[in-house]
Amino acid sequence: MSTLPVRAYTDALSYERGQTLRLHVDATSPVAVRLVRMRSADAGDTALDEDVAWSAAGSYDASPQETCVGSFLLGELAPAAPDGTPTLSLGAFVWSADHAAAPVQALVSLAGGPTLALHDGCPTVVDEAGTVLVTGPRLNDHTWHLVVASLEPGAARITVTAVDRVRGRTDEVVADGSFGPFVPRGPVTVGARDGRDVVPGENGARGRAQDGFNGKLEDPFVCVAAISAAQAAAVVTGDVELSDLELVAAWDLSFRHGEEPSLAAAVAARQPHGTLVNGPARGVTGRRFTGRALDFNDAPAEYAAAHFHSTDLLDAGWDEALEAALPEDLPSGVYGVVVENEDGSDVVPITVVPRAEDPRSKVLVVLPTLTYLAYANEALFNGLDPSAMTDQEVVVESADHAHVGDASFGLSMYDTHPDGSGVMLSSARRQIVNMRRGYRMWLVDAGRSFSSDMYLVEWLARRGIDCDVVTDLEVHERGAAYLAPYAAVISGSHPEYTTEEMLDGLLEYRDAGGGLLYLGGNGWYWVTGLLSTAPLVAEIRRGHAGIRCWESYPGELTLMSTGLPGGLWRHRGRAPQVLSGVGFAAQGWGRSEPYHRAEAASDPRWSWVFEGVEEDPIGAYGAVMGGAAGDEIDRADVSLGTPEHAVVLASSRGHSNFYQRVLEEIGMNLPDHGGGEQDPEVHADIVYFRTPGGGEVFSTGSIAWSGSLLENGTENGVSRMTENVIDRFVATRAGT
Description:
This protein is mainly beta. Helix 5 packs parallel to helix 6 (about 500-510). The model has no long low-confidence stretch (mean pLDDT about 95).
């Protein structure tokens, strides 16, 4: 049981009014459930909240839940498998950056039969009772091996052959004994053992297993012949094909975009296809990778592996505690599903979005849920020296400590799996402790991502600005036509992860005369795909540039969700400046700084932006490290797409050396390059421009901007500027 006594998630992050919501709860006793409209940013001060009458509110049974975590393949034997055989072999090509990432990791396992596994990085054969029959040599990390376990009447044999020609010897360990005969029967679990409870989904399946492997597997197989060391070596060289063996089960794990990600293609005659469970990575390099093709679609045989992890999670798979329709009269906004008992509580945020035919407000807020997923349950604080990143006090919340080392929470895209490989997939169907109202992020001791966007939601409520709220998923699926009724579309504070469809929708809305307010920093940065929308599962590949906590392996830049290159949008020719006039310039977690008016601010053409703003500099205050320009900041750059007619109205300056320029702009490491104290490009710009079609863009280029809106009861310069722009955009599109 987790140290958090009540844990919950909903089946989606956004709903239309009247749609069915499914709630999943992990608790030891019944829970009370109710619905509240959330307008307050502070979970401890909910004066602006509103209780919602909901027929589904009430008490529900709840119990401890087992999470579907750890990827594996579940398959069956060919129907021609013999009823009994004196010999049996299990094998696969195996690669890991750390073959000892866990003490016990199963590679190929027969139900009620033997298992080929790694024990502290050494291949072993384990019988159905769990007894180790023979142990082979420790596998070399970062090296492909063919690992085969053969059982015959008088011996158990482990054969290990390195694929690399330098390391290409064959090692064989034989243990005498009395084994067999064998009655091969399924299911067969690959990448774990005891696969069970498998439930198919939209673009993946969920299920449970034990002793998950952390690494790549290629051509896993079961055959009813003993494989000698010479035969194993011949398979590695290609002189003997796997199909030449007496196969009763084998799977081809190569992948092309458009194929079902959970399908494991069967190789043995009349064998049914297998199912890949809990989201192992596809489109990853295998033993035949040459580097001549960097897209798995172009050379599937070179990408014939799957990368399994004991920490992969597509859908937690908890039992439903509640299934009910939301009220039909719910206005668009941010709501919380409150789940509580005497032990504790959890408030799961959801967004109620307008139906296409609903009346609309003039103002729309787009919550960047893909960014929420990218950071979901991140644990960068674990083992980190805070003094290397900030001069601010670092306070880690108890909820953050609770998920460290607990695989049932899933990982963020800033974490790595046990073998050191990066987390490429993130699902919304799990409890996400840092996507909660009032959450204070450890590095800034303030709201970040969802909790930062609640500053904006509260500010709009306090200023009496009526708005609708949607998520970036609606922009992805419904496009510019869904945005068209709005005079002003406002981004969240950190829309870092974005799909091509989202960029297209925002650009089309803007260029057709819409008003875009980008009130954030480091937006539109990482190419992101959606592997699935139900559950919502985001995919990234970090590539080899940009601010990153891990790097993609060579050849693994193409997204399996889209079949297109991942990495930075900048390297796809769509730098953030193209959309919003500013793009990621620097990040840091020293004090946030204010903005200083540029010379253009005195031009009467832009006086409407500064009307009623008496302070100079602007934003020398705020919840996020004491200023309006900080955390991650963006600047204008015509060479990257800022329109030449865009006007820079204000800029920050004086950032400390805790702020460093983004890596993709540092072509060479030089002495005394420095940070904010030496590098003039370490600053944030406030930019405004118009488009030929009547569109307008106002960008602030800072994550910390929203954290300044509520200062002094919203009576401040940051607040006034933001409201001035919203009022202007609304008035312009009303024809006044």
